[in-house]
């Protein structure tokens, strides 16, 4: 199963090159494993249809052009659309800092 393959896949694609300490690497690897497991469970339960990935968008806001990419667009069984923007890097946003992050509020 995919669940059983996750540790093997993570080990295959993992790179230790950027880590100054083994402790930080171990912490990040544990977090990566947890993130992968959470994603697989969520994806298995997701009933939505994938419409597109890495979809470019551009719009004008207060006279300025805003361009970006939507990681994934899905259509729900009821016909609604959902835009997903995966957040996998640092830093982790808190309820307080997320209000100040312009990308999270567009």
Write the topology of this structure.
Blueprint: H1 2-13, H2 22-45, E1 49-61, E2 64-75, E3 81-84, H3 102-105
Antiparallel strand pairs: 1-2, 2-3
Description:
The protein is α+β, with helices and mostly antiparallel strands. 38% of the residues lie in helices and 27% in strands. It has 3 helices and 3 strands; from the N terminus they run ααβββα. Helix 1 (2-13) packs antiparallel against helix 2 (22-45). The chain is extended. The model has no long low-confidence stretch (mean pLDDT 86).
Task: Characterize this entry briefly.
With 106 residues, the chain is of the alpha+beta class. Helices cover 38% and strands 27% of the residues.
**Count of DSSP-assigned helices:** 3
Instruction: Calculate Rg over CA atoms.
Output: 17 Å
Unreliable sequence segments: none
| SSE string | HHEEEH
- Write down the overall mean pLDDT: 86
Strand percentage, roughly? 25-35%
How is the largest sheet built, in terms of strand order? Answer: 1-2-3
Structural class: alpha+beta
Q: What's the main sheet like? A: 3 strands, antiparallel
Q: Give the N-to-C terminal Cα separation.
A: 38 Å
Shape: extended
Share of helical residues: 25-40%
Question: What is the total tally of β strands?
Answer: 3
